[in-house]
């Protein structure tokens, strides 16, 4: 487990697991103390380099945005 590069803190984390020659990644956020959001789980395709592919990053970004909106709505409801 390690912080996902490009998010500036340890609020977005990545787990990388190798299994039978394939690599799987799970990305989640712990930015909010009451909830854990799993943002994306995927199999890393055989492309050179260690970087997370742009298409996968786009999914993570969109889901993180929705999680943020959900948290803001929940905060307003409590308010």
Description:
- The chain has 79 residues and is of the alpha+beta class.
- The chain contains 1 helix and 4 strands.
- A hairpin with a 2-residue loop joins strand 2 and strand 3 (22-29).
- The radius of gyration is 14 Å and the shape is elongated.
What does the secondary structure layout of this molecule look like, with pairings?
Elements: E1 2-3, E2 12-19, E3 22-29, E4 37-44, H1 54-78
Antiparallel strand pairs: 1-2, 2-3, 3-4
Q: Briefly, what is this?
A:
Helix content is 32%, strand content 33%. The protein contains one helix and four strands, in the order ββββα. A four-stranded antiparallel beta sheet has the order 1-2-3-4.
Keywords:
79 residues, alpha+beta
Helical residue percent band: 25-40%
Mean pLDDT: 90
Low-pLDDT runs: none
Topology order in helix (H) and strand (E) letters: EEEEH
Strand-residue proportion: 25-35%
Enumerate the strands of the largest sheet in spatial order, edge to edge or round the barrel.
Answer: 1-2-3-4
The shape, in one word, is elongated
Tally of DSSP β-strands: 4
Number of helices: 1
Main beta sheet: 4 strands, antiparallel
Backbone structural class: alpha+beta
Instruction: Give the end-to-end Cα distance, rounded to a whole number of Å.
Output: 35 Å
What does the radius of gyration come to? 14 Å
